[in-house]
# Entry
Amino acid sequence: MRTVRTDLNSAYRFNGVDSYINTQTAFFDIGSTAYTISAWFKLDDLSKQFNAILNTKPHNGIAINYNHSGDGGLSYWLDTGGDSWNIAAHLMGSKTDFAQNTWYQVVIVKNNKSWNFYVNAVLDASVNTSLNIVSQNTQLFFGSASFLGEYFAGSVDDIRIYNRALSESEIQQLYNGIVNATPIISLGDINKDNSPEIAVVTYNPTLKKSTATVKNAQTGALVRRIPFDGQFVPNKANVLPDLNNNGASEIAVLGVRSSDQAVQVEVRDSLSGVKLSAMPFDPAFKPLDLGVVRDISGKGTAGLAVLQQNATQLRVQLKNALTGAQIRNISFNANYNGIDLLVISDLNANQS
# Structure
């Protein structure tokens, strides 16, 4: 078994030349009535042809390959246990807009004589058969075909095997990786379809993946998934007014990096996902809440306020939401524990 596990967050990294991993033991029965295999992958080279993500040994059982024939998508291969790929041979998935250095989830679900293939929890291809499938234990290969060729250039992580067919809702949960989730934030009508959007920020600790999922509040339709810096575990999220003049509000996420307890707020556009700013806050304090304050710096930009507490102080650190420039620190009575940060409109008509 050749392995190269050097990618960030302990994913398996494959060089596209001679690296792969396999189970060595033939334990996986391709003739099982039901099973699910899930894995995350990231592509280093979109142009490389023949990238085996998954294969069985014997070879003709199950295979998933990227750009097998220069088509820029995933192809799926299935056999009854012979040598002819007689269920599916180069069954193309519908997704062809893969990006380099971006994580994708691929899932294969077998239920009796039907197979569904999902990419990022969206059905990519499906196939049925009337043929009888031979019960046959196989090894699983990741990063190459079982004949040691078609080497994959990229990374694979979070491989999961189930002895049942997962439902679509379970696949969605796997994709979202909801372990940490912020409260729902309301974004307003960002895509001008006369219906507001809402967002929830979730965190997958296995992949160190932080994602804001934006959906239409009226229909539930997915609008966009926005990646945030996965080094920081999301603590709170809030919505900012439009900072880049595209008519859409912005999403601010407060997070803490587990390796050194660094604190950061990252701001991204809710419509395009473009990163607008990322600013550190004082790591000597535990961050409790994230607030948004109207422009009190006189620079035309909203402020980000982080409620912080340590053994001796309770305070709010206020920064410019676009530049990250420090505005001020506001102290509160440290004899009490901080709970929530409330932003109140101008009560005394002093324009603040």
In short: The longest strand covers residues 34-43.
